[in-house]
Amino acid sequence: MFHGTSRVNERGHLEIGGVDTIELAKTYGTPLYVYDVALIRKRARAFKQTFEKHGLRAQVAYASKAFSAIAIVQLMAEEGLSLDVVSGGELYTALKAGFPVERIHFHGNNKSREELEMALRAGIGCIVVDNFYELSLLEQLSREFERKTPILLRVTPGIEAHTHDYILTGQEDSKFGFDLHNGQADEALKQALASPHLQVLGIHCHIGSQIFEATGFVLAAKKLFEKLAAWRDQYRFVAEVVNLGGGFGIRYTSEDDPLAPEQYVEEIIQEVKRDVEMFSLPMPEIWIEPGRSLVGDAGTTIYSIGSRKEVPNIRQYVAVDGGMSDNIRPALYEAKYEAVLANRVLDEKEEVVSIAGKCCESGDMLIWDLPLPKAEAGDYLAVFCTGAYGYAMANNYNRLPRPAVVFVENGEAQLVIRRETYEDLVRLDVPLKTKVNK
Ligand SMILES: Cc1ncc(COP(=O)(O)O)c(C=O)c1O
Ligand SMILES: N[C@@H](CCCC[NH3+])C(=O)O
C-alpha cells in the first residue's frame, strides 16, 4: 500500500517525501495531488540504467499524457529522459518547460495541420506517423518548411494484450497505426521512403496500457523485427530506431501483480538481442515510452471527508470533496484503488465503507468496500497511486475547480499547479450581448 517515501510519522499521519500530508492539506486545501519526486526519479533511473547495463543506445520517453504540466516535464528533462507528446497542448507545455526539442516525439492518430506546423516550427526530434492522411500532410508541410522531417511509422502488430478493453491499442481492430500484416505498413514505408522530405528513422508500436506480463511486448518486438528483416530485403531499409511504446503495469491494489518496471525492459532487451542476431540486423536504438509506470504510484490524492449515508444492512457511504472530476478512472474502467485515513493511519479499522465522490452521478464512486477506522467529517482520506491519468483526465464536471498539485522531496513541498478558482471556471465564458427582459 505504501509506495516510495510514504510512511506514517510520529503523529500517526501519512508522510510523503518527508512532508506531513495533513500539513499539506491545511496549506493547499483538498482535494490535493501530492507527488513523491524521489520515487519518480527512482523509476526514471531504473529504466535508463537497464539499457545502460546492456550497453544499448536507448531513449526513455516519458508519455506526458499520463500527467502533463511544466514542472513534471522539467523533472523528466532533469533526469535525462525524452518526451512523448500527443497534442498541440502537450507540445506547448513541453516547449514552455524548455524541454530539449530534439528529444520530443509527437504522437496522435489525428494530428491537425496546425499541430504539425507547430512541431515543424519547433524542430522537434521525431513525429510518429499514424496513418496515410498524416503521411501526405506531413510530406507536404515538410516540403513547404524545406525540412527533412524525422519520422517513425506506427504499426499495429495484431497483439491482444491482457488489459481493460478500453486501453488496448495493439490489436488488429484499432484506430491507431498502420496494420503490420495486411500491406498497409509496407505501403506507408514505400511512400515515406519516396519522399525527399521525410527521414524514416524506424518503426513504433504500443500494445496497450496497464499490462502485467512481458509476453505481449516480447511478441510485439518479434513481429517488428520480422518486418524489419523483410524491409531490409525488399527495400534496403535499415531501421535506426525501434520504439516499443509504453504500457508497463503498476500495482494499484494488492490484487495487482505487475513486474518491476525495469523487468519489462529487461525482457524486451533479451528479445531484441535474439531478433537482431537471428535476422542479422544491426542493433537499432531502442525507445520506450512509459507514462503510468513513471508517475502512477508516485501520486497520492488527499481528500477531506464530509457527509455519510447509511443504507441499513447494506452499505455505509462516506463522501469526499472530489470524485470523478479529479479521478475518472473508477467510473471509466472500474479501476480499483487503496486508501487510508491520512490523519489516523494506524487507528484500528472498524468498518467497511464505500467512498463516494461529490458529483451528481451515481457512478461517481471512488472505492467500494474499503476497511477504515470510523471516519468522520474533518478526517482526511489518502487515495494511493493516482499519479497517472488522474490530474491529466480531471475535468470541471458540476463546475468543480480542479485540485492543486504539489511536489514533495527531502522534506520540502512545492506547489506546481495551483488550485482552480471559481473565477478560473468562468474565465472563458462570454456573457450574452443583450439582456433579456421579460
Ligand atoms: C502511443 C502511446 N505511448 C505510450 C503510452 C503510455 O502508456 P502507459 O502510461 O501505459 O505507459 C500510451 C498510452 O497508453 C500510448 O498510447
Ligand atoms: N487513460 C488510461 C490509459 C490510456 C493510455 C493512453 N493511451 C488509464 O487511465 O488507464
At CATH level 3, the topology of the largest domain is TIM Barrel
Cα end-to-end separation: 59 Å
- CATH architecture annotation name of the largest domain: Alpha-Beta Barrel
Provide the number of structural domains.
2
Q: Which range does the strand content fall in?
A: 15-25%
User: How many distinct helices?
Assistant: 12
Question: What is the CATH top level name of the largest domain?
Answer: Alpha Beta
What percentage of residues falls in helices of 4 or more residues?
A: 25-40%
Mean pLDDT: 96
The main sheet comes to: 9 strands, mixed
Poorly predicted parts: none
Radius of gyration: 23 Å
Q: Give the full name of the CATH homologous superfamily of the largest domain.
A: Alanine racemase
What does this structure look like?
The protein has 438 residues and is an alpha/beta fold. It folds into two domains: 144 residues, Lyase, Ornithine Decarboxylase, Chain A, domain 1, CATH 2.40.37.10; 258 residues, TIM Barrel (Alpha-Beta Barrel). The protein has twelve helices and 21 strands. Strands 4, 14, 15, 16, 17, 18, 19, 20 and 21 form a nine-stranded mixed sheet that branches. The longest helix is centred in the middle third of the chain and has 21 residues. The protein is globular. The mean pLDDT is 96. Bound molecules: pyridoxal-5'-phosphate (PLP) and lysine. Lysine binds next to loops. It catalyses: meso-2,6-diaminopimelate + H(+) = L-lysine + CO2.
